[in-house]
Each structure stands twice: as C-alpha cells, then as structure tokens.
Design a protein that fits this description.
Helices cover 69% and strands 0% of the residues. It is mostly helical. The model has no long low-confidence stretch (mean pLDDT 97).
C-alpha cells in the first residue's frame, strides 16, 4: 500500500535533489570559471538536466531498474510501460512514479558533475552527445549493478546513496575526458582565480541543503534511517569544511571561501555511500578523511599529474566517493555504532567487497568513457578553437554574456 508520509517525503527529497543541479551545481561551478564563460556553464547544467530527463523516460530507467541480467536491465519499463498511478515500487510504500522521479534527479546530477572538469574549452555539441551516451552506457549499467538487482548488489556492495553510482563514475570519467581533451590555455601557470567566489558559495550552500534529499531520501521512507542519514551527512560536511580551512590556513596563512566550500562538497561526497549505514561519530571520521584525502588529491592531479581537471571533479567526487565506500565497510559495523554489515560479512570481507566495487566501477567508467569520447570526437569534435577559447564560450557558443555592464 502507498504510505502518504513516505510518499510526501520522497516527493520533497526529489525536489531537493533537482535543486542541487538547478541551480546549486550550476552556480557552484559558474562562480569558479572566468566571467566570459559563466553562461556556458549554466547552459551545460541546464541542458544536461533536460536531456537526461528524456533519456531516463525513454529507456535509461528501464536499463537501470528493469528486469534483466546481472549486467543490465531490460526495456520492459521503457516509457514507464506498465507503471500506473497506483503502482508501488517493490519493497517500498511509494508510487513507482515517485521512485522514477527521485532516481531521475540522480541521473541528472551525475553527468552534470562532469561539467566541472571540462569547462571553458569544450564544444557544446560534444557536451550533449557525450552526456547522453554516457548516461546510457556508463550510468545506467552501473546503477543496475548496485541498486537494480545486478551483480555488485548481489555480492553485497554497500552504497547507500551513490559513492560508486554517482561520485566514482563521474570522477573517473572526468579524468579520462580531460586527459583526452587537453588543458586550458595557460595551464597551469596562467590560470586566473575564480571570477565570483560568492556565487560559488551560494551554489555550495544549495548543494548542501539539497544533499539532505540525496542521502536522507535514499532511505525511501520517512523514518529513522532518513533521520540518521541526514545527521551523518551534515556532520561530515561540517567536519570536512573545517579540515580544508585548517589546511589552507596553515599552509598559506589565509583561509579562503572557495576552500571551505570545496571542503564541504568533499565531506558530502565522502559520506554519501555510508550515510544511512553509519552513526554520527563515524560521520566525523568520514569528514576528516574526506577533507584531508581530497585536498591532497587536488594537488596530485593538477601539480604532479599535470591534468587540468578544472574544478577538481575527480579529486573531490571520485576520490571522495571511493574513500567513503571503503570507510563504510568499517564504520557500518554495529560495534562502531553502525546499522550492521550484510549477514555473514566481517569488516575484512566487506572491505574486499567494497574494493571490488571500486575497481569494477572505476574500470568500466574509464574504458567506456574513453570509447565514448573517441566516438564524440569523430562525430562532432571536442575542443573549441583557440580564438573561441580566448573570447569565451558565452559569446562564441551561445551569443550571450553573463555581465552586460
């Protein structure tokens, strides 16, 4: 039977997760780029949201959550075939239409996250083609593997709200894409600072609020699991923010606004896979780990590897998601205040299962993304001209300007 309270909460959570992308993620990324590319970032996020919504209806939802094999769902639920107004999603008390919409918002934000890696130098047509193919070839299968009855779910992988499904897929794919695309002009020595950190802070704040829908909504009910997921999410974000602040303050003598809000996103990404499985004390540990490890990963990618992941998608989301997946195997244990490991699992065995998930999802995301990128490059090209990059994508790609002063 449909439960009104659970349904009302999931409708609210769905709105919160969409709010994360529109406008949260768009503003968070928009403030970090040059002023001449602000509108292009907003356009990328908005257009991807529209494209992902239609693809989710046409077939992606069915591929992710429909009956099929251990690797991919079938097409039995394409266009929501067989789903009526009163159809209840299995093992829940909510209408399947609400579950469909809730999961759609995940499918919207995940390719949206990748936008942060390739800003200021990519063709708009390439963004759309890559995002659409990526949703069908990377996101939908991985979702099925873990949440749709696939092989990793059967193995016992614990991913409450998307450490693998969302953050690792987006992070690894971002790294591959920008490695092929190449760095922005002047990278790394002549990259100007963000043009509007206050916009980034506003976007990060929207992401933080929306993340309550992301993690607490993944309980799929209005109860204790949602409450604990919300609590853990907030504590991890606050902890990681202060960790990032402390590192910058110690290292540079001045803590930055961009730094503290980036720390918050790292803490949110890290707690995502464990949010419904761990307690508030563990959330502090997740925040400490996320803030420290993700900060180090930013320097590794840009300075040591010299890869221009412009807005640190891999370092924050990919590394944060993988870190959280592994920590979940430890802190989900009842002895540490967690909800418990799968029946028959020990901490050591669960770490092995979680590591298998990280390796499999990371490998598939990298391989499939590389093939998609090559196909997109052959079809429409990837990179704008040098002159377009100098002028800015707002004018050259969209004929508009973010600031008409």
């Amino acid at each position: 039977m449909i439960n009104a309270a659970d349904t009302a909460w999931l409708i609210t959570a769905t709105a919160l997760v969409l709010f994360m992308t529109l406008p949260g993620l768009a503003l968070f990324y928009g403030g970090l780029v040059h002023a001449r590319n602000l509108l292009s970032v907003l356009m990328h996020c908005f257009a991807i949201a529209c494209l992902a919504s239609l693809l989710w209806l046409v077939c992606a939802y069915s591929l992710a959550f429909g009956d099929g094999t251990a690797l991919i769902g079938g097409l039995g639920k394409a266009f929501l075939a067989g789903v009526g107004r009163e159809t209840v999603y299995p093992d829940t008390t909510i209408p399947e239409t609400v579950f469909f919409m809730f999961q759609m918002t995940f499918a919207i934000i995940t390719p949206g996250l990748i936008v942060g890696a390739f800003v200021e130098r990519i063709k708009f047509g390439a963004v759309l083609l890559f995002s659409g193919l990526w949703l069908l070839i990377v996101y939908a299968p991985v979702t099925h593997w873990i949440w749709g009855g696939g092989w990793l779910g059967e193995m016992g992988v614990m991913d409450y709200a998307g450490g693998l499904v969302v953050h690792l897929t987006a992070g690894v794919s971002s790294l591959v894409l920008v490695a092929v695309l190449g760095p922005r002009m002047g990278f790394p020595r002549d990259i100007r600072p963000p043009h509007a950190p206050w916009i980034t802070m506003a976007g990060a704040s929207m992401l933080w609020v929306g993340w309550f829908g992301f993690n607490a909504g993944s309980a799929l009910s209005a109860g204790g699991d949602a409450g604990m997921a919300m609590t853990a999410t907030h504590i991890s974000a606050a902890t990681a923010s202060l960790v990032w602040l402390a590192i910058e303050w110690t290292k540079y003598g001045k803590p930055s606004l961009v730094g503290i809000v980036t720390g918050a996103i790292a803490g949110l990404a890290t707690i995502t896979p464990g949010s419904g499985f761990v307690g508030p004390g563990a959330a502090v540990a997740f925040g400490l780990a996320g803030g420290t490890i993700c900060y180090a990963a930013v320097g590794l990618v840009k300075n040591r590897l010299a890869i221009d992941d412009a807005l640190d998608v891999f370092a924050v989301h990919g590394v944060g998601g993988a870190t959280g997946i592994l920590l979940t195997a430890i802190f989900a244990a009842t002895a540490l205040g967690g909800a418990g490991l799968p029946e028959g699992a020990s901490v050591a065995s669960q770490i092995g299962v979680q590591a298998t998930g990280v390796a499999a999802v990371g490998a598939w995301s990298a391989l499939a993304s590389y093939l998609i990128i090559k196909a997109v490059a052959a079809a429409v090209g990837l990179r704008v001209s040098e002159q377009d990059e100098i002028t800015g994508l707002d004018v050259t790609a969209h004929g508009e300007s973010g600031y008409n002063l």
